[in-house]
């Protein structure tokens, strides 16, 4: 616009209107030829094309700013007015000057947007710098989708369904409170295993552990006493059995085991004394009465022998050996008639030939004694 104003001022100073010819030295200067308007029109068109190119560049820049979400004031490019072809010589010149001024103004506004000092421009500049720091350049943004796509493909290739993924093994240590019965079962199993392996000392410890929990455990006392006796610690074995009888006097299994140990230690009298302390049911403790009768016969205690075999014969009436024992005890007690009756009963039940021969000898002996006495 400054160039256009300058031209107008120069015309005013000369006192001429646009289109009038100047008189220099009394001679008139002819105006532009008839071809001048067409030349001016072509120049105007060229300038218009240049202005459109600058406008397109300015539009591309605005589109980039919109991509990064940075609001920027858009300068509206004013299109030049269409040039009218007339015969007026000053009008085309004015139009050409105005078009050049607008082009210069638009070019300066596009090249130096930072020189604007309006609040909107400063705010736009600040926003643009902030987003520029956060958003990568256009070239890197163009490459970013490809990198993301490749990453997603790798993730899909490496992804494994959760159902096929085996969880990592984890070691969890839990404290389980066992009941006394469970502890006893565990110690019994451990005692049997160590005894089979020949670790008698370890087996003894396990059995002692059982008895510390349940002092009345009969099987544990029997096993512990047997281990101690096998290790030639018979006194400790007897102490274990005696302690068990104090806890449970009806534990006749412990009494029988103690009597067997004393008998093996060549102490039949102590063994018989041990058995005489109780009178269990014969049908449930046949071994108890058998050992008692055997010890009584060994110690010539015929009455105790007769009573023991009588209990056995009552428990098992079809067992011939019990009747044979009764017959021998009656014979020693001079009960001839009872002895003959018991021998005959044993003869009916026993199938062993040597035993039958012995029974015949004793019957003949009793008959001879009866004849001798009667004569």
Automatic annotation (TrEMBL):
InterPro entries recorded: TPR-like_helical_dom_sf, TPR_rpt
Keywords: Membrane, Transmembrane, Transmembrane helix
Transmembrane segments: 38-57
Amino acid composition bias (Low complexity), ranges on this chain: 21-33, 93-109
Stretch list, region Disordered: 9-33, 70-174
Biased composition range(s): Acidic residues: 151-165
Keyword Protein biosynthesis found: no
Keyword Transmembrane helix set for record: yes
Biased composition (Polar residues): 141-150
Pfam families: TPR_19
Residue spans of biased composition, Basic and acidic residues class: 9-20
UniProt name for this protein: Membrane associated TPR repeats containing protein
Organism lineage string: Bacteria, Pseudomonadati, Pseudomonadota, Gammaproteobacteria, Alteromonadales
């Amino acid at each position: 616009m400054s160039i256009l104003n300058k031209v107008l001022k120069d015309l005013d100073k000369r006192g001429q209107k646009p289109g009038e010819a100047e008189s220099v030295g009394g001679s008139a200067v002819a105006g532009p030829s008839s071809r001048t308007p067409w030349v001016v029109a072509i120049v105007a068109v060229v300038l218009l094309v240049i202005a459109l190119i600058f406008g397109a560049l300015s539009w591309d820049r605005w589109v980039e700013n919109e991509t990064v979400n940075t609001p920027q004031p858009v300068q509206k490019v004013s299109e030049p007015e269409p040039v009218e072809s007339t015969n007026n010589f000053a009008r085309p010149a004015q139009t050409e000057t105005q078009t050049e001024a607008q082009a210069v103004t638009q070019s300066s506004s596009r090249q130096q947007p930072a020189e604007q000092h309006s609040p909107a421009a400063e705010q736009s500049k600040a926003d643009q710098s902030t987003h520029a720091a956060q958003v990568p350049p256009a070239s890197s943004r163009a490459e970013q989708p490809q990198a993301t796509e490749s990453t997603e493909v790798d993730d899909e290739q490496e992804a494994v369904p959760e159902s096929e993924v085996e969880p990592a093994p984890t070691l969890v240590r839990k404290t389980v409170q066992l009941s006394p019965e469970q502890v006893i079962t565990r110690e019994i199993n451990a005692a049997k295993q160590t005894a089979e392996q020949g670790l008698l000392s370890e087996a003894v410890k396990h059995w002692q552990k059982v008895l510390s929990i349940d002092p009345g455990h009969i099987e544990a006392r029997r096993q512990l006493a047997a281990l101690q006796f096998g290790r030639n610690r018979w006194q400790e074995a007897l102490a274990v059995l005696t302690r068990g009888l104090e806890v449970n006097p009806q534990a006749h299994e412990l009494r029988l085991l103690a009597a067997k140990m004393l008998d093996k230690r060549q102490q039949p009298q102590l063994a018989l004394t041990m058995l005489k302390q109780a009178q269990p049911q014969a049908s449930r403790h046949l071994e108890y009465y058998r050992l008692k009768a055997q010890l009584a016969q060994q110690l010539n205690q015929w009455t105790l022998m007769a009573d023991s075999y009588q209990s056995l014969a009552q428990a098992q009436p079809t067992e011939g050996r019990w009747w044979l024992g009764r017959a021998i005890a009656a014979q020693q007690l001079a009960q001839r008639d009872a002895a003959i009756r018991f021998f005959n009963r044993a003869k009916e039940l026993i199938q062993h030939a040597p035993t039958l021969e012995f029974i015949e000898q004793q019957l003949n002996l009793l008959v001879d004694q009866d004849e001798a006495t009667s004569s």
